[in-house]
Amino acid sequence: MSKKTLHPSVQQFKEFVKKHPQIVLEVRRGNSKWQDLFEEWYLLGEEDSRWDEFKERNTTASQPDEEGKKEWMQQVMGAMKNMDTNQLQHHVSSLSQALGAIQGLILQFQGNPQSKSSGGNRTSQPQHPFQFRKD
């Protein structure tokens, strides 16, 4: 029993779904269930008008994709035209400073690896993780 073979009607349904990938999206969106679709396909057949919506979407699927890409590019280009480079530089600088502060905190919490391997000298005071300094 190395591999379980599927019933021929299930194999045919899988081929039908491969031809019409919009059916998969219908199930993923939660609009239909596989069992219901299989039963309809089995009872009605592939040529029923039930499947027309998936056939139509299949033939025009490439056009909305290309239009969506063009629309997205137009949005990106519009955003770049309206972008204030000084404000962008300020945000990048703030982000860099925040990352530097986080990195410094992580290094302080990690501690000095030499003091931990010295044999547990507990008489000395532990370093405080936050060092406050006056400006």
TrEMBL record:
Region (Disordered): 110-135
Source domain of life: Bacteria
Compositional bias annotation for Polar residues: 110-128
One Pfam family per UniProt: YlbD_coat
Annotated protein name in UniProt: Coat protein
Organism the protein comes from: Robertmurraya kyonggiensis
